[in-house]
Design a protein that fits this description.
single chain; 550 residues; alpha+beta; Herpes Virus-1; seven-stranded antiparallel β-sheet; six-stranded antiparallel β-sheet; 9 helices; 37% helix; elongated; disordered C terminus
Length: 550
């Protein structure tokens, strides 16, 4: 039997309908063989009973019985083919995550291809007819996929081989005649190519988004690293400064305690000397007292008279009436020590503020005043760096950006992130206010300078009073009026700080601010009050060399 089977080719054991090895083979009256289920289904959908191979028509439907001889031969052939496949490729046995061959019985081998015409997945052995038979070569093979039934139209049980652009769905030929008759329908390949092009574009957009996010991710990492470096530097400086301060305080405390102890020691030594001297005199006096008592009790006249002369020769004693031990006065000792400490700390604070000012000056920005925002009585210099008040009102258009009631003007430049710093000369003025303002501030009618209203400013009134325009306002006790004011803003930190540039001193800081809009540097030279306040506000360039000499 095995010798005979070796003479037969695989095609002789294949059903011409399903192109697979016979399952329950039957023979038609014309002598051709088919799987019983294949020929039965074929005749069920045909009007007449016809042989699929020779086209012979049978008047009555033949009664088909399984050909046991061919069935046994087909079973042996199938078994042998599976054994040969297993021996050649033992690793091709289907794994749980892989698509199995639909034809294999028993052990399922891994499918190499799926046929979109047959709707069957084939292993290497069962795929052979599709690679050799001319009729099967026209079938469309794809990489193995599961659920080939899903490629059939559920409504018409036909292959989904078209794509409806209107409804963006795959359809069969019957769908184009019925439900999608007037729609723009194209072959699957054309729809595939179009969608593939869209996917390519989408992929490019996604890759671009990924790249942008990677750059942003790197930016965040660099920001964290920079923040860590700044924090480490600031902590190191803080530890150094506070260690020096604690050392100074400890040294001053030691000096104070040493001074007090020294005074106490001197007092104790003086008192101990007096005590010792007094104790010596008391001892001598007590001895003399004993001798006097003893002599006074004597009834021997001669003895008393002979010894009284020696008794009168006692050594002289000290007059202690005016001798005092004065406790030292400690009043003012602590105050003087604290005053000295304050002077030392003030010197160190000045050095710290100088370093701080120098650091923020690195964020200097070049500003020019915006004439479109200036109150009509304000006079701006040609270079946009100076502004002063004039009694003569100019006839200017009342555009939305212009302040209409108060002597205010903004810079052309605005800032919505990062840090910036600028300096303004206020020398010779008796009234002014400076700071920053958000874009949406009220510019018409009554205006209140406060953070709630969009202003972060400080103000010098004509009564020589300095005020931080918070709510409530904060009076600023300055030792001397600044001639040049520095303004520093950290947008993300929510910080606005004002400095006396020449004194290298912090005037005031608004902290915990929440900035969500553009910020504009803000200037007000105020009224000139008959020439008393006629000096201009001047935007000055930062002179770090001069500052470093302080």
């Amino acid at each position: 039997m095995s010798a005979a089977s070796c003479l037969l080719t695989e095609d002789q054991f294949l059903c011409s309908i399903c192109r697979d090895v016979f399952t329950d083979p039957v023979s038609t009256p014309c002598g051709h063989n088919f799987c019983k289920s294949c020929i039965t289904e074929h005749w069920d959908v045909k009007v007449s009973c016809q042989c699929p191979n020779c086209k012979e028509v049978f008047k009555t439907r033949p009664e088909l019985k399984v050909n046991t001889f061919i069935s046994e031969m087909a079973a042996q052939f199938r078994q042998k083919a599976q054994q040969e496949a297993s021996s050649r490729r033992p690793e091709q046995v289907s794994k749980p995550a892989e698509v199995p061959c639909d034809v294999c019985t028993g052990t399922k081998l891994k499918a190499l291809k799926s046929c979109l015409v047959c709707l069957v997945s084939y292993c290497e052995t069962h795929l052979e007819p599709h690679l050799t038979a001319s009729r099967l070569k026209r079938h469309q093979l794809i990489d193995p996929v599961e659920n080939l039934e899903g490629r059939m139209c559920e409504k018409h049980d036909k292959l989904l081989e078209l794509f409806c652009k209107n409804d963006q769905m795959c359809v069969c030929m019957m769908c184009t005649i019925l439900d999608h008759k007037t729609h723009d329908v194209v072959p699957l390949r054309e729809g595939y190519e179009g969608k593939k092009a869209e996917l390519g574009k989408t992929e490019a957009e996604i890759q671009q988004m990924i790249q942008k996010r990677r750059l942003k991710l790197e930016e965040f990492k660099q920001s964290v690293e920079l923040s860590k470096k700044n924090a480490d530097r600031e902590m190191a400086e803080g530890v150094q400064v506070f260690s020096a301060l604690m050392e100074t305080v400890e040294r001053r405390l030691n000096n104070l305690t040493d001074t007090i102890k020294e005074k106490q020691r001197e007092t104790e030594e003086q008192a101990e000397g007096f005590i010792k001297e007094l104790q010596q005199e008391i001892s001598e006096l007590e001895k003399r007292s004993s001798e006097v008592k003893k002599l006074s009790r004597s009834e021997d006249h001669l003895h008393l008279l002979q010894n009284i002369t020696a008794l009168n020769a006692a050594p002289p004693t000290k007059n202690w009436t005016g001798v005092r031990v004065h406790p030292p006065s400690y009043e003012g000792t602590v105050v003087r020590a604290v005053k000295q400490l304050e002077e030392t700390l003030s010197e160190q604070m000045k050095k710290l503020f100088e370093a701080e000012l120098k650091r923020v000056q690195q964020y200097e920005v070049d500003l020019t005043l915006d004439p479109d925002t200036a109150y009509p009585n304000l006079i701006l210099s040609d270079d946009g760096k100076q502004v002063h008040h004039s009694n003569k009102k100019k006839n200017l258009p009342n555009n939305p950006e212009r302040f209409s009631k108060y002597t205010m003007v903004l810079s052309k430049q605005s800032f919505s992130s990062g840090r910036f710093y600028f300096e303004v000369q206020v020398k010779g003025k008796t009234d002014w206010d400076l700071g920053v303002a958000r874009e949406s501030i009220n510019r018409k009618g009554d205006i209140r300078l406060s953070p709630e209203d969009g202003f972060w400013t400080i103000w010098l009134s004509n009564r020589n009073e300095y005020t931080a325009c918070a709510r409530p306002s904060v009076d600023l006790a300055l030792q001397s009026g600044p001639e040049k004011v520095g303004v520093f803003v950290d947008y993300e930190e929510g910080l606005v700080s004002f400095y006396d540039v020449d004194a290298a001193a912090l005037i005031y800081s608004f902290t915990g601010c929440s900035f969500t809009e553009k910020l504009y540097p803000y200037f007000s030279p105020d009224n000139n009050y008959g020439g008393k306040n006629s000096a201009p506000l001047i935007i000055s360039p930062v002179n770090q060399t001069e500052e470093s000499n302080h």
